[in-house]
Design a protein that fits this description.
Elements (H helix, E strand, L loop, with lengths): L5 H9 L4 H9 L5 H8 L7 H9 L5 H7 L6 H8 L7
């Protein structure tokens, strides 16, 4: 079962959205990271600026930031963004 907005995001990507814009759709919970991979053909990755932007606007929580570790940010960047040590340290 695909996310409700999967077809919309896929159509936007086919019409010129960047992979970063599709990544934004993951953070907005329009699609999953797995669906990102189905749409773009690439593994879901992000960068610290993208994560910081969504975190600063309360769009994502510490759990989602932790999910991004190894997908573009480091454990140190997790701590920098959240102000907490990376879980399990």
């Amino acid at each position: 079962m695909r996310s409700k907005k999967y077809n919309m995001v896929k159509k936007c990507y086919d019409r010129g959205w960047t992979k970063r814009q599709v990544g934004d759709a993951v953070f907005c919970k329009y699609i999953t990271a797995e669906e990102y991979e189905m749409i773009t053909g690439d593994t879901f990755t992000t960068d610290i600026e993208q994560v910081e932007w969504f975190y600063s606007r309360d769009r994502i929580n510490n759990e989602m930031v932790a999910f991004c570790v190894g997908k573009g940010i480091t454990e140190e960047e997790y701590q920098e963004i959240t102000g907490e040590p990376f879980p399990g340290q």
